[in-house]
Write a structure and sequence with these properties.
Structural class: alpha/beta
Strand content: 5-15%
Low-confidence stretches: none
CATH superfamily of the largest domain: Phosphoenolpyruvate-binding domains
Distance between the termini: 43 Å
Largest sheet: 8 strands, mixed
Number of domains: 3
Mean pLDDT: 85
Helix content: 40-55%
Strand order of the largest sheet: 1-8-7-3-4-5-6-2
Length: 596
């Protein structure tokens, strides 16, 4: 039954890939199938296990066919996502738990797999890191394919999309997205998902506007409805009036003009009007992102997240895998520097074969450097790979989630052991490789003066620092409004850390989300910071803002900010200060985060 047509209806989601586009809605039907739940006779258990394993083999063959059918070279470079799904189909936890459910509970495959998913789902829900939490969707994409195979359901053919359409779905798997003729897709909108879902990552990479997390899109939109989507603000308009369309397209014209202007700054130095040189680098997770980092003007890689090497695989990465990955990084970014952050995930939730039981509060449990120090074999393999790669270019090592001196000393001691081993084996490495500590726990910020004597540099991870300092879970909709980067307490913490580092003669960088917001960068510069690492796309915008101010002005700005008592007062003043210095259109482009 058709949904009643909406006229000029505006719905709001998460802007996942910027751009304003218009097109007709193409609905991808992906409703969850009703799963049969049946008890089976003991005599049929082996037959049911065989049926489950057959459905997995079918799923593998289907994904391999999808991968082989991708002809577009620009799209083919994203086919590694399908490799991730193929690895999930080999995951022994998924397979064995389901088989155990069939055998012990005497239930059919669909029910047994659903029980396995519930158990794995609960583990993913506790993850604080947004990127890692979104990998839960990969598990569901794969499982949905197994369910459909078990139930004999057809997989919709979405390869025949024609005309410039906006794809509307409850969710899209990477296999869905990669099979589409993306030249025919104007945009994506989905009911669920976040900024780091695969649909969002692929859309950003290919420059296709996308809005995710709309919740009600598929219940309100009919196939063929005219849509306007704004991938920056997260707005979607269903069957807009002529006046609404005109307003959006005028805004699109202004934004495109401004973005073309901003992109001109990518190749220019990040230097203030009074000659202060600022260093802008990129945060990346995959080697494939290096070209984007370079084209957007990054001087180096300020944060390489190594977690991707460990996810969705049966075996831990070897020393050789680490070495080859990091070597490729440093050689491709040369003469710039790559800062490699050691493993920053909790082993019991992600590493196959490592089961230590669930933790009540994994965000504050066995994760990051705590896990590495405990599981030294895993840590040493990574450190040897990093050290060997240091022979091929400029490289720094960053230890995450440092809370005190003993952790940093223990990590350094393990590193020294590996240096001695490589030296004895006459394997080349940079004997003076620089070591850094991430300042993301309040205790580390309080003893920053002591920590500064132990390391060569600091990198402030503002995402966790803000959450821990303010006791705010930014993904909890009930308290996320309290997540305030410009909170007076956060500004005081950062000022103290920077001063401790300066007193010890070491540099401090910011690698959290604050570094990607021009208004925040100007405040941070006023606090004495001169090195920032961010998503590559943000670099030209930040660079332009820096080139339009004097460093001395930002110091005066910050002095004024310390006279205010609340984040609202601070944001209001920064907004006013910026409005006086930037052209109106550029100010609108960069002041979104200052709304009070």
């Amino acid at each position: 039954m058709a949904i009643q047509q909406q006229i000029n209806k505006v719905i709001h989601g998460i802007g996942a890939s910027p751009g304003i586009v218009s097109g007709r809605a193409y609905l991808v039907e992906r409703y969850k199938v009703r799963l049969p739940q049946k008890r089976i006779e003991p005599s049929r258990v082996d037959e049911e296990v065989e049926r489950f394993l057959k459905a997995i083999e079918e799923a593998k063959n289907q994904l391999k066919e999808v991968k082989e059918s991708i002809l577009d070279p620009e799209v083919r470079q994203h086919a590694f996502i399908l490799d991730v799904h193929l690895m999930i189909l080999d995951d022994q936890m998924l397979i064995q738990n389901t088989i155990d459910n069939i055998r012990k509970r005497k239930v059919n495959s669909e029910w047994a797999l659903d029980l396995t998913l519930e158990k794995m789902d609960s583990a993913f829900k506790t993850i604080e890191d947004e990127y890692l939490r979104e990998r839960r969707s990969d598990l569901h994409y794969v499982s949905a394919r197994i369910f459909r195979n078990l139930m004999g359901k057809k997989h919709d053919d979405i390869t025949k999309i024609k005309g410039k359409v906006i794809v509307v779905a409850h969710d899209l798997s990477p296999a869905d997205t990669l099979q589409m003729q993306l030249s025919q897709v104007a945009g994506f909108i989905t009911d669920i998902g976040g900024k780091v879902s695969h649909t969002a990552i692929l859309a950003r990479s290919l420059g296709i506007p996308a809005v995710v997390g709309l919740e009600v899109a598929t219940s309100l939109i009919n196939g063929g409805d005219l849509l306007i989507i704004d991938g920056e603000t997260g707005e979607v308009v269903i069957n807009p009036t002529e006046e609404t369309s005109k307003s959006f397209f005028e805004r699109r014209k202004r934004i495109k003009s401004m973005e073309r202007e901003v992109l001109k700054y990518a190749s220019l130095p990040a230097e203030t009007r009074d000659g202060v040189r600022i260093h802008l680098q990129a945060n990346i997770e995959m080697v494939e992102e290096i070209s984007s980092a370079k084209s957007h003007g990054a001087e180096g890689i300020g944060l390489y997240r190594t977690e991707i090497l460990y996810l969705n695989r049966k075996n831990l990465p070897t020393e050789e895998e680490h070495y080859q990955t990091y070597r490729k990084l440093v050689e491709n970014i040369s003469p710039g520097t790559v800062t490699i952050r050691t493993l920053d995930i909790g082993g019991d939730k992600f590493l196959d074969g490592y089961q230590k039981g669930n933790e009540m509060n994994p965000a504050m449990g066995l994760r990051a450097i705590r896990f590495s120090i405990r599981e030294t074999d895993i840590f040493k393999a990574q450190l040897r790979g990093v050290l060997r790669a240091s022979a091929h270019g400029k490289l720094k090592i960053l230890f995450p989630m440092i809370s005190g001196i003993e952790e940093i000393r223990r990590a350094k001691a393990i590193l020294e052991e590996e240096k001695k081993g490589l030296a004895k084996a006459r394997i080349p490495f940079d004997r003076g490789v620089k070591i850094g500590a991430m300042i993301e726990i309040p205790s580390a910020s309080v003893i920053a003066d002591i920590l500064a004597r132990e390391v060569d540099f600091f990198s402030i991870g503002t995402n966790d620092l803000i959450q821990y300092a303010l006791a705010v879970d930014r993904i909890n909709e009930h308290v996320s409004y309290l997540y305030e980067p410009l909170h007076p307490a956060i500004l005081r913490i950062i000022r103290s850390v920077v001063q401790s580092a300066k007193n010890a003669g070491i540099p401090t960088a910011i690698c959290g989300e604050m570094a990607a917001v021009p208004s925040y960068v100007l405040v941070l510069m006023g606090l004495g910071l001169e090195e920032f690492s961010m998503h590559p796309i943000a670099i030209p915008k930040v660079k332009r803002a820096l080139r339009m101010v004097r460093a001395e002005e930002t110091k005066t700005l910050v002095e004024r900010l310390f006279q205010f008592s609340t984040p609202t007062e601070i944001k209001r003043y920064v907004r006013k200060w910026m409005a006086e210095r930037f052209p109106e259109e550029f100010f609108k482009l960069i002041a979104e985060d200052l709304k009070t």
